[in-house]
Design goal:
The chain contains 9 helices and 7 strands, in the order H-H-H-H-E-E-H-E-E-H-E-H-E-H-E-H. The chain is an alpha/beta fold. The chain has a single domain, classed as P-loop containing nucleotide triphosphate hydrolases (Rossmann fold), CATH 3.40.50.300. Helix 7 links the parallel strand 5 and strand 6. The relative contact order is 0.21. Bound molecules: guanosine-5'-diphosphate. The site of guanosine-5'-diphosphate has 16 residues, from helix 5.
């Protein structure tokens, strides 16, 4: 197995001094102090769980004998997908956006989980299903690209349209470059299907504060003006520094119905 990252567990994050801790657990809030006075930050704090909720969520992502977390199967077609028995979330995004790294970070407290990557050109792209105990399933959707083959587009569209147990789609966007043309195509598809989704800004450790602020404000404005199904709060993550990963675990637990109450922090 892999050694867990140094900040993979909340107990490790809680040892940091306050400002660093806020940056790791609530990276969006950390940006707030750099905004012009009067900026509306209501959308920065819609999902702001307290420590107890964060800890309950972490327990879900920590495997043990009575709570296995496993890769289940891969599918290239909907009729190969496992039965829709549990609440489900899926992760989509352009190739190279940091999706496998993020899923590995989410599952870092379950080191036996293998997040497979099939990047070889021409290699069949598959949906990978992971089961988190008896609580939910997480699906790693194949990365979409500029010239995605038609059968791939059909697979993703069929999944998003038909999957009855799909509770939320996580659309990953590169935090350094912001929304790209292919991301807009994904947004249009999700809007057309009318399914709930949320945007996750990746690799935030690589963006300067100025670039990050610009991208965050632009994307939040875009969400407000142009979308119906997108959660108004952005999630910011770095799989390297582990920022935003604890909060994202908590949001996944919440949307899959595994956190009955989320008390404010
Ligand atoms: P995927 O194609 O979406 O699965 O992307 P990967 O997870 O394989 O990441 C693509 C590249 O970005 C790799 O070189 C990763 O090491 C890098 N990367 C992914 N996440 C992060 C991050 O949070 N911070 C930084 N600095 N690099 C990242």
């Amino acid at each position: 197995g892999r050694a867990p990252l140094p900040l993979a567990a909340l107990s490790q994050v809680l040892r940091l001094e306050r400002s660093r801790r806020t940056g790791i657990v609530f990276p969006l809030q950390k940006l707030e102090r750099y905004l012009a006075p009067g900026t509306d930050t209501a959308r920065f704090r819609l999902f702001q769980p307290g420590l107890a909720a964060l800890q309950r969520a972490e327990a879900l992502f920590r495997s043990d004998r009575g709570h296995p977390i496993d890769y289940v199967s891969s599918a290239v077609r909907m009729d190969h997908a496992p039965p829709p028995a549990l609440p489900e979330v899926c992760f989509i995004g352009r190739s190279n956006v940091g999706k496998s790294s993020l899923i590995r970070a989410l599952f870092s407290l379950a080191p036996e989980v293998e997040v497979r990557v099939s990047k070889t050109p021409g290699h069949t792209k598959k949906m990978n299903f992971f089961k988190v105990g008896k609580y939910f399933t997480l699906v790693d959707m194949p990365g979409y690209g500029y010239r995605a083959p038609q059968d791939f587009v059909e697979m993703v569209e069929a999944y998003l349209q038909e999957r009855r147990n799909l509770k939320r789609t996580f659309l990953l966007v590169d935090g350094v470059v912001g929304l790209q043309k292919t991301d807009h195509i994904a947004v249009e598809m999700l809007e057309e299907f009318g399914i709930p989704y949320v945007m996750v800004l990746t690799k935030i450790d690589r963006a300067s504060r100025g670039v990050l602020l610009k991208n965050v404000l632009e994307i939040q404005e875009f969400i407000k003006e142009n979308t119906q199904g997108c959660f108004p709060q952005l999630f910011l993550v770095s799989s390297v520094e582990f920022s935003g990963v604890h909060l994202l675990r908590c949001f996944v637990a919440h949307v899959t119905g595994n956190l009955p109450t989320v008390e404010a922090s």
